[in-house]
Amino acid sequence: xKPESESIRIQAEQSSHREHSVPVYLTSSFTFxxxxxxxxxxxxxxxxxxxxxxxxxxCQEFTDKMCVLEGAEAGYATAxxxxxxxxxxxxxxxxxxxxxxxxxxxxxxHTIISKFLPKWGITYSYADPNKxxxxxxxxxxxxxxxxxxxxxNPGLDIIDLDWLGKLxxxxxxxxxxxxxxxxxxxxQPIFYGADLVTHSxxxxxxxxxxxxxxxxVGKKELIKEIYTFCRSTGPALSPFxxxxxxxxxxxxxxxxxxxxxxxxxxxxxxxxHKELDWLRYPFLPSHPQYAIAKAQMKLGGGVLxxxxxxxxxxxxxxxxxxxMASLTANxxxxxxxxxxxASTTHAKLTEEERILSGITxxxxxxxxxxxxxxxxxxxxxxxxxxxx
Length: 388
Ligand SMILES: Cc1ncc(COP(=O)(O)O)c(C=O)c1O
Known about the structure:
seven-stranded mixed sheet; 2 domains; Aspartate Aminotransferase, domain 1; 15 helices; five-stranded mixed sheet; binds pyridoxal-5'-phosphate; alpha/beta; Aspartate Aminotransferase, domain 2
């Protein structure tokens, strides 16, 4: 079966009721026939569910689908994207290790790397996604992991996964890719040599802005370490959220196609708009890494960014003038969302850090929804006019 069929057909074992749609297993623990069965489960001699902090049928179903979509051997579902990223760092890095990360990453990931990892003796270097020639020089003898986002949030920097996969392999370093913006429908980092793929399932995987969730998938032996860390520290995904996310995966490929079509049409329509300084979208030839995007992404994704002439003040007026698009922190929703990253998701970075990550003060991020493209375009056009 093709991955998109498996993401529809994979289902937790049917109960004696022979339900068609999987029930929600809202239970904190599971029972045993006898003391011996319970002992064997705790000794890892069987894979019986014990306790929902460790495993749960809904979480397993969601993880199994993600593994098939990403081409991964194993995975673990977490309560949020940040707990997936954090667990992947904490389970595999130790005091004295060095992490090499792309500079253009989500704000909270930057906080973990720059504020928390050093507290535990883990050092880091940031590499510029636009200067791949400098990355190898930043690798140290104790570099244990490379972490990247591609496309990055919100700068939409694209990193060449084929090149990076080879670089990580050459130096025997774990390659960890946050695939939140692309989703496995658009790109599969494991195919290029990634050892781990993390996701904020809160975004396109849910797709309707309802629940938080995360997942990390990848090599069996690495996931085992992550599972051991999570089983004891407790960032487990709730069964209800897993049920929602697993159902959402059944429509992920359809939704990503429509998000990408709408975003591309919007980008093409506004790319030369006289009121914009610039507009960025991975599948526009004007994107600096257009060739890489075309080579490794099946579609351009659902996010575009632009800056209005007049910078930050004009940007604020624009956001206030939107009539349909929502002003909210999320992305990857059926509803079009507009945000100003410099004052919201990336406000914790210094001005200099933001500029280095491609976040100009006036940058507006649009997560293009599934509404009719004419309605989305009209809303943006009228808000641009109003903000003059
Ligand atoms: C690229 C990326 N990674 C991770 C996260 C964190 O995910 P969550 O909000 O589910 O913790 C986000 C959230 O916006 C994100 O955009």
